[in-house]
Amino acid sequence: MRLLFAALSLLTVSASNSFAQQFGAAENLGPRIPTPQAIVERMLEAARVTPDDVVYDLGSGDGRIVVTAVQKYGAHAVGIEIMPDLCKQARDRIVQMGLGERARIIEGNALHIDLSPATVVTMFFMTNSNERLKPALAKLHPGARVVSNQFAVSGWKPTQIVRLKTGRMENAIFVYEIGRTN
Questions:
Q1: What does the alpha-carbon distance between residue 120 and residue 75 come to, in Å, rounded to a whole number?
Q2: Which strands make up the sheet holding 54-58, listed edge to edge?
Q3: CB 35 within 8 Å of CB 41
Q4: Global pTM?
Q5: CA proximity to 140, closest of 98, 182, 84
Q6: Confidence band (pLDDT; 50, 70, 90) for 32?
Q7: Ramachandran bin of 135, using left for φ above 0, alpha for ψ from -120 to 50, beta for the remaining angles
Q8: How many CB atoms are closer than 10 A to CB 99?
Q9: At what angle do helices 37-46 and 64-73 cross, to 10 degrees?
Q10: Within 10 Å of residue 89's Cβ, how many Cβ atoms?
Q11: Which domains does the chain have, with CATH numbers?
Q12: N- to C-terminal Cα distance for the chain?
C-alpha cells in the first residue's frame, strides 16, 4: 500500500509540474489552448470588425485571430504573446502570407502592454486572468469592443453573448463595449 501511495504521489507531482509548465512564465495568463477557427470567425464577427479597426489579440498564440482580422476584415491587428516559440511561429506565418504591413506580433505580457490604440480586444483567458486585465481594458476609448471567448469579465455586463457549439463543446463569446458595460 505504501508503495502504491508513493507511486501515486510521484505521478501527482509529475502531472502537476507538467501542467504548470504549460503556463510558462509566472505572469502568463493562461494555458496554450488554440481557439478553433470557427470561434475566431464568430469572435471577430461579434466584434463588428471593420477595416478602420485596430484589433489586439491578447495571448495570440499562433496568430490565427490576427491573420483572420487582417485577411477577412482588412483591419490592422496586433498579437500579444508571452511565449517566444509562438511569437516566432506567428511572425513567420505573417511574413509568409505577406501581411506584415497590417499585422504584427509583440512578445510580451498582456498585463504590461499599452492597449490604447486598440478599438477591439480579443482574448481567451479564464475569469481570474480577465479580472487582472480589467483595469487596462477599462482604459480603452469609449466604444472599443472587448470580446472574451468562454469566460466573462466579472462585474461587466455584456452587450451580447454569442453561443455556439463546436463539436461537443458549448461555447460562449462575451462581447463588451467600453462605456456601456463597465
A1: 10
A2: 103-107, 76-81, 54-58, 120-123, 145-149, 169-177, 160-166
A3: no
A4: 0.83
A5: 182
A6: confident
A7: alpha
A8: 18
A9: 60
A10: 16
A11: 27-177 (3.40.50.150)
A12: 55
